[in-house]
Structures are given as C-alpha cells and as structure tokens.
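Batch 3, record 17
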Amino acid sequence: MSVYTPVSESQLAAWLKGYSVGAPCAFEPVAAGIENTNYFVTTSQGRYVLTLFERLPAAELPFYLGLMAHLARHGIPCPAPIADLADRYLSELSGKPAALVTRLPGASLERPGAHECAELGGLLARMHLAGRSYRGYLENPRGPKWWRVAAREVRPFLDAARQRQLDDELQLQARHRFAELPRGPVHADLFRDNALFENGRISGVIDFYFAGVDCLLFDVAVCVNDWCLADPASDRRLDETLTRALLGAYAALRPFSLAERAAWPVMLRAAALRFWLSRLRDFHRPRAGALVRVHDPEHFCEVLRLRAGAGSVPWPG
Amino acid sequence: MSVYTPVSESQLAAWLKGYSVGAPCAFEPVAAGIENTNYFVTTSQGRYVLTLFERLPAAELPFYLGLMAHLARHGIPCPAPIADLADRYLSELSGKPAALVTRLPGASLERPGAHECAELGGLLARMHLAGRSYRGYLENPRGPKWWRVAAREVRPFLDAARQRQLDDELQLQARHRFAELPRGPVHADLFRDNALFENGRISGVIDFYFAGVDCLLFDVAVCVNDWCLADPASDRRLDETLTRALLGAYAALRPFSLAERAAWPVMLRAAALRFWLSRLRDFHRPRAGALVRVHDPEHFCEVLRLRAGAGSVPWPG
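Prediction for the assembled complex:
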C-alpha cells in the first residue's frame, strides 16, 4: 500500500468543493504506485484519481500535468487533470501538492500477446505525434546525467563483474549521444502495469510522473524491454513475434528514420541501463520510511547483458 | 435528417490522419441537430461526433469550442473538442470549418421527473461556477439586441393580439436590463433534448452553439421553461414540484442573490420571448434549402402568456 499521507472523508469533501465534479460518494486508497499517495474518488459526476505528490519537485509538476492535459485533449486515453474553480490543475491537500485526474477503465496485463503489443505500439506512436505540439519542457530527469550520478552511488555495492559491466556500459553510452534522433515528450516508464486494457483494446496509459523530453526511440526501447520478453520471469531475451508486433504497429504511424534504425541496439541497452540503475538505487539506498516495493535489480542487469550480446535484436521487416 | 454537407468514408479517413484518435471503424450521419452537419464517428480509440459548421459565423466558433474544452477539463460532462496534430480544435473538411468532439453516453428524456430536474439543476450550477474562469467572450447572440431585430422581421406575420403581446413584452423587458445580476458563459439552449441521462444520472450536456455570455439566471429560466412544465404538450404552466427540484438543486451549489430572486418572474418571460421569436422566425422566414424541423411558435407564445400571468411562478422556499 502506497499511502504516505492519510486524507479523511471530511477533508476530501471540503477540498472537492473547489471543483466542479460534484460531491464524493466513494473513496479508497490505491495500493499501486510508488512515488505518490493515490486515492480512487467516485463523485456524482464520475470516477477520479486523487494524487498527493510526496517527493516530486514542485517545479516539475506543471510539466507532468500539462502533458497529460495536452495528450488527453488530443484523444490519447491518459488521465485528464481536472481544473479547479480557480482554473488550476494543482492545489493543496493535507499540506501536499494535490491533483485530481480522471480514472480510466480497464486493467493491466501480466502477459500481453502480439495483439496487445501492437495496440501498445500504435498508441505509443499516436502519443509521440500528439506530444510534439506540447510546449512544456523538462529534460528527462532519468537521462544520461542522472545515470552518472546514480552509478557513482550504487557502484560500491556491486561485485567486480557488475562494476565492469556498469563502467563499460556508461562508456559505450557516452559515445552515443543520439543528437540526430527525433525528440519530444516521452512517457519513459510505460511498463505493462502502466497500460490498461478493456475488451482487447488499450483503454489507458497512466503514471506520467517519469515523463520528460528525450529521444522518442528511448520510449520505444523502454516498452520493448518490458513488453516483448520471451518470459518476463525466466527468459529476458526478446520474443521476435512480440517485438515485431510492437515495432510494426508503431512504425505504421510514425516510420522510423534510418538514424533510429542504426541507434536501436544501443538504445535498447540505454533503456535497460536506466532501470538497472534505478532499481540498484532503490535496493541499496532505500528511502527512509518508504513503503515502496523494491524490484530485483538483477532483472535489468540480465536484460542489459542480453541486449549487449550479438544477434539478439529483432527489427521489423 | 440534418446533413447539409456529405462526407465520404475516404475523405473522413484522410482527415482523421491529422488527429491522434486512430483509424475510423464506423461512420454515420446524425439525424438530430438543426444548425450543423453532424456525423457519429467511431475509431479504434473511441466514439466521437464530427461537426461541419454550416452557418455559424467563423469568428464565433473559437468561443464555443474553447468553452466546451474549458468546461470539459473542469469535469463537466460536455463534448470535449479533440485537438489535431497542429494543436487546433478547428480544421476544414469538405470546404467547411469542422471539429471533432467526444461523443457522450446516454439518451435524452421526454418527460423528466423531479429527480432528473434536480440532476439538471445541479449540473447547471456546476457549469456556471466552472464557466466563470473562462476567458473567451461572446455576447449572447440571441440577447436583447437580437430580440428587437427578430421582432421587426416577424411582426408583420402576427395577428393584432400577438402584435400587442410582442410589443408589450419588448417594452417590459426594455425596462429590465439586469445589470446587477451575476453573468458568465451560459448554454442558453439547454432544452431536454440537449441533456443526456444514463442510469438516472446526467451523463452529458450537448450542443453549445447558442452559448454566450449573459445573466446566469437567464440559463436557469430557459431550463425551467422547458423542463418543468405541467405537460409539455398541453399544459405549459410550471409544475411546482419539478420547478422546486431544479431550482433547489441549483441553489444548493450557487445560492441565488436577492437581485436574482427579484428578477426571476421577468427572466422567465425573457427566456420565453427569446424562443418565441426564434421559432416565429424559423416558421415565417425559413432558410432556403434548410432541412430544419420547424417547431410550432405557438408553444412559446403560450409559455410567455402564462409567465406574464399572476401567481404562476414557484420559487424554492
């Protein structure tokens, strides 16, 4: 359960008077989510998620909420922030910055098939195309600069082989800055648990609080590294059918450039490196009092090792 | 059927490539609506309404679409305009200004009861509160200035008694300018067929193309004159239970001022006058080639006569 800040029913009812969504009729804490406190809120008008921001820098919140609002008004099924009567997406509740967003239908899938990977690929392309007109700017907070900081923090906890793997990967990535690739706002954390499906269609993309401006291809690589594994628990090689389904559906809407095709193998490694580092940090340097479920860092160490191996990277026809 | 401008499936598919809503899978003309051409469009992403604007002044369209977008992002269940890849709500299709908006669930009710009148009253209040932060401005295009123009046009078609009724009403209204009443964006046409219900809850308010800035109380009067009749077909007196339900639910969220309570009887007459005039005009001066279903002007002549009578205006306790 990720509830760091309790909110009472009467606090909620008073706070909702500042909105146009009617009175609350149901209210429950959300178990998922590791960065913020979330509640499901049902009012006479509809279903919402209330988020209290626990540790995201306040200066970054307008970027995330503005991006979600931008994508939602382009028809992307993402949480749409609700503006309050003072016309703000952000207000304050229990001493924390707080936002109300629409709650989307559907449920995430543990083992998506080729059809679902294609759904995700298509939505990702539409999201990237719609995002290009977004005027907010925030450099991906988990980009190359952050990798170097995080690597210094976690390196002492690694054995010699993993230290070498990390050093080699940072050096390889430093030689590839991808300045020529198309950039824009990316979700940057679109794992299976951040996509909702209903009746076989993708019905929602959630949790934009790792979003930032980066290479669009980085977002694709993050997805492929999570959605297209032969077996997420035991075989982290890429399944060729799933990978082709995701990439093919994406490319049908936003064809990859030659530079992107050339960058692909290194980008898959970059995406693996980013999550290896954050999981190492969560594992070895947990936040005090955090109720975060810690993921095994070895998963992404193995993904990175496999992507660095030869001949393992399918690419659509 | 109100389709003035035909659109082919291939035209639609090409036009939708400028949006982020996926490819069309179903497409049908909408029978209702008298000012615009409307199509229901279903894509892989969702359900939408495509509107081609046939005769609304192009300069007014941003006010309407901006208002709908503003209300939607405040949680009001109204059609949300979808922005295209160039980040515009308005584009062009078949030589007409065109917009894509979300399609809302539910169906309108012929005979709303007290529960539904209360639902409508509550939603109207929330819409007025949310609308106050909207920065667009368009004087109600069917306001007092328009009444005088329309009256000159239709007066020659009336018998002597109705000419006198019209002259008297215009004179009475001219003595009441309501400068002291709260104003803001109002729907101004929220008849029963412009509200959708689903499972007993109001699920949508549609057709904002008569909206404008006016007294908020004018909007309430338009609703009461249509929703709260003893019998819409045969007895246009106000049903006291329905009227109290609508006004009470509204006032619980936005209490009426003393000035509004004083203005109420004259405002009910103003709202009846506005629709008597437009129906007279549609009846006696129909547009060439228009497929508009003409409503009987006598309905609002009778509503006006009854509201001008004594003791007929309930007001919540």
